[in-house]
Amino acid sequence: MSSEVLSSPSQPDPWRHYPRGGLDEFFDAHGNIRPLYRVFLPLLQGRLNQWDRRKQIADQIFHHRGVTFALGSSAERIERPIPFDIVPRILSHAHWQHLERGLAQRLVALNLLVGDIYGDQRILQAGVIPRDFVYSSPLLQPRMMGVEVPQNRWVSVAGIDIVRSGEDEYVVLEDNVRSPSGVSYVLENRLVSSSIWPQVMRSVSMHSIVEYPQRLLDTLLGLSPGTWVVLTPGVYNSAYFEHSLLASQMGIDLVEGRDLVVYRNRIHVKTTQGLTPIDGIYRRVDEDFLDPLVFRADSLIGVPGLGNVLMHGALALVNAVGCGIADDKGMYRFIPDAIRYYLGEEPILSNIPTYLPVFEKERDYIFSHWDELVFKPVAESGGKGLAFGRDMSMPEREQWKEMICRQPRQFIAQPVITFSTAPVYHQGHFEARYVDFRPFCLLGNDPWILPGGLTRVSGSSQSLVVNSSQGGAIKDTWVLRE
């Protein structure tokens, strides 16, 4: 147990209920504050009303800047400020170097995998991934088979979710390339931190994150010089704040599907001066809704004819239609094999063991180890459909087993793993909450990883689910330079 005084003697100990000895970002296994966080020691020994005031300032900044997250459908939409915790997460230089190398390696492999699946299919011919498994994915876009995309770059932007599973070990939780969101919160978190921790930040040598919008713009222009726009589903989308912020900071137009039209096999944006041709779209619309003539016919937010323009090579799209195959949680199982196949390297970042009920032996294992596993639909995101075997009632277990037997390709199972906690300041005391980490990755001529990212926090000390859409909070993430 730590002998350091972490509170003022004139007030109740705010750490009195905080568990020690587990895998925690703030405390080591002996209960001592980690060197990374000693810069906060004088502040912890002060009065708690200083922390209350900082929390109040942070909430006010988020409110005034309109940093929100929407829950529910458009009919039942709840717009709320996203919960922000004022205690930053700090990553050491050594840990970041390891993560940066592993993320760059994985990003390159993801792009090669998607391009190969829609192209020569070498990895399928080699038997590294079963062909039937790929072709049965709900996220495969068969219309993209044989379609060429600019510079064969299918994945330009990725958000790869990471958890810390040991003192020096990080594992990949899942890949997000369809439309990874959250980078606007990364930028806003840093803005708030600079307001509430100015002296602390001046004493810490950390990487800046302000260059992300310019890096993103450079990635887009490197793919196709010319006029780009950000395509949003509209103000009712949960990430609309992000769409607006990125468009503004990149200096390009934010448009909805109704603002675009196909004319002479090119996409144009409607303006008061007439039609203006565009060369590229940074899309924040799910690919199934991009064109009601090619994809989902019930889409009201797409652009009729866009698919035809795309397939004739007259438009650059980031990310490319079809990249969702890499988000398939069943395909996640094979990403380490893809790294070995395409790059001839061992994966730097490990996967969580993943069991596929489509294979009989693995289905038998799942049914005999039910309480040890968490179940996920392969095509969902944001924690939707996730269920822990140990928490299911007997009727729920039978229902899940019936679903798995009926549609085994639609689900995966993974062991419930222990990952790190971090302190959250809540009403005068600190609570340990589980945290994950979403770094944002760009692929141009070379991969570039934003030296920071979105740390997401579980909604309660008992919950392992950290998604903002499931009631979680966010933290600023400081990456040290040395």
Q: What is the topology?
A:
Elements: H1 41-44, H2 48-65, E1 68-71, E2 78-81, E3 84-91, H3 93-117, H4 122-125, H5 131-135, E4 157-166, E5 169-176, H6 183-196, H7 198-202, H8 212-223, E6 228-231, H9 240-250, E7 253-255, E8 260-263, E9 266-271, E10 274-277, E11 280-283, H10 306-311, E12 316-318, H11 335-343, E13 350-351, H12 360-368, E14 373-377, E15 387-388, H13 394-406, E16 411-415, E17 421-426, E18 429-438, E19 440-443, E20 447-449, E21 454-457, E22 473-479
Parallel strand pairs: 3-22, 5-13, 6-7, 6-11, 11-12
Antiparallel strand pairs: 1-2, 4-5, 4-19, 8-9, 9-10, 14-15, 14-16, 17-18, 18-21, 19-20, 21-22
Helix pairs in contact: 2-6, 3-11
Question: Describe it for me?
Answer:
This protein has about 475 residues and is of the alpha+beta class. It has a domain at about 355-415: 2-Layer Sandwich (Dna Ligase, domain 1). The chain has 13 helices and 22 strands. Strands 3-22-21-18-17 form a 5-stranded mixed β-sheet. Helix 2 (about 50-65) crosses helix 6 (about 185-195) and helix 3 (about 95-115) packs across helix 11. The radius of gyration is 23 Å and the shape is globular. The mean pLDDT is about 95. InterPro entries: ATP-dep_Glu-Cys_Ligase-2 (IPR051680), CP_ATPgrasp_2 (IPR025841), UCP005522 (IPR016450).
